[in-house]
Amino acid sequence: MNPAGDACRSCGSRDVAVFLDLGKTPLSDRLVAPRDLEAPEPHFQLDVAFCASCSMVQVLEKIPQEVLFPSDYPYFSSFSGFVLEHSRRHVHGLVETRGLNESSLVVELASNDGYLLRNFVDLGIPVLGIDPTPRQCEAANEVGVRTLCRFFSDALAEELVADGLRADVIIANNVMAHIPDLNGFVSGMAKLLAPGGIITVENPYVRDLIDQTAFDTIYHEHIFYHSCTGVAGLMRRHGLHLNHVEHFPDLHGGTLRYHISHEPGTSPDLDAYLAEEISSGLSSAAYYEGFGRRVESIKADLLQLLGDLRAQGKTIAGYGAAAKGSTLLNYIGVGRDLVDYVVDRNVHKQGMLMPGTHQPILPTESLLVRQPDYVLLLAWNFKDEIMAQQAEYAAAGGRFIVPVPAPGIL
């Protein structure tokens, strides 16, 4: 249902139907300072809908970009070793396949703290990062990654082109899902890309989200949930072509990397994904039916598990003060009565409180100091990396709880 008659945020169609209602939740990256604990904390409706006209899955609530990504935005990409290695391999692959050198220009949109572009810098390849968050831009510039502190848009692309800049490679990792003006963003990429250049875009794959019941991947800042069908249509509307796709099942719960250019083309992998999306029904509303019921089942089972452990006198911490953790805690209703605190490697989050549920965020070393009986893996998409990091905690008797796709103790 779509009682408000909302139009699709991508193609403008009114053929949009809500298939998941997560209620009103706080902004998932809006950590709370202890001094502000008594201040009002805004909550926004979190409905997820499918557009039958363009196959785009999306959050309907419209919140200004500056509110979603304020100047104190806490996410720094460099705190995940898995992401750093994934990015390093991507860079070296592009350098080899595209023949990049000191005469090339690589532009990354939402470049964060320079975690990816610094690999190009080390190879002597010119770069430009574009990111709207001041602390991340400062960190990037400090490590030699030239970064412009702006939101990327069609207008900014025109400014850069007028200044004589065209990109041989544009990289947009985990940003095309977060853009309220998706059409302006893609139009800007089309203008900034040099003839013969390539765009690579990475985002979590909506099929993995649905199949794994990964509802915690949904939050207000994450507006769109992409598929090959949806991305191919979006690119065509702006004179671009989706030519190839790669799948990374262990990255963010399942990620696709889209290869896009001005020139039309295809690959066996892309053809296979497009055909599979059609045959599985992913481009129809029926594919998403039942998702809400599975989400409700996870909620009931996880509350039961945590409640039983608490009744036995067990102590429970959370690992990962990320956006997905906020969605999970708030939708399920996991307060400090069930999870005492959350640990995170990001020093910029430590000392703050989780949105809505207000668990304090502590350094990961706290697990060894406090030795809780169980750790709820809020960042379950990095469970192998986390469990390897916390081998000493596990050796001392600690256990891990995974919430998705079905709650259980590892």
Give the helix/strand layout.
Elements: E1 16-26, E2 43-51, E3 57-59, H1 65-68, H2 81-98, E4 106-109, H3 117-122, E5 127-131, H4 134-142, E6 147-149, H5 154-162, E7 167-173, H6 182-192, E8 193-204, H7 206-211, E9 224-225, H8 228-236, E10 241-248, E11 255-261, H9 268-280, H10 291-311, E12 316-319, H11 323-332, E13 342-343, E14 361-362, H12 366-370, E15 374-377, H13 383-389, H14 391-395, E16 399-402, E17 408-409
Parallel strand pairs: 4-5, 4-7, 5-6, 7-8, 12-13, 12-15, 13-14, 15-16
Antiparallel strand pairs: 1-2, 2-3, 3-9, 8-11, 10-11, 16-17
Helix pairs in contact: 5-6
Order of strands side by side in the largest beta sheet? 6-5-4-7-8-11-10
**Helix-strand category:** alpha/beta
Shape: globular
Whole-number tally of structural domains: 2
Can you describe what's shown?
The protein is α/β, with parallel strands linked by helices and 410 residues long. The protein folds into 2 domains: 204 residues, 3-Layer(aba) Sandwich (Rossmann fold), CATH 3.40.50.150; 112 residues, NAD(P)-binding Rossmann-like Domain (Rossmann fold, 3-Layer(aba) Sandwich), CATH 3.40.50. It is built from 14 helices and 17 strands. The strands form 3 sheets. A 7-stranded mixed β-sheet has the order 6-5-4-7-8-11-10, with helices on both faces. A 6-stranded mixed β-sheet has the order 14-13-12-15-16-17, with helices on both faces. It is globular and about 65 Å long.
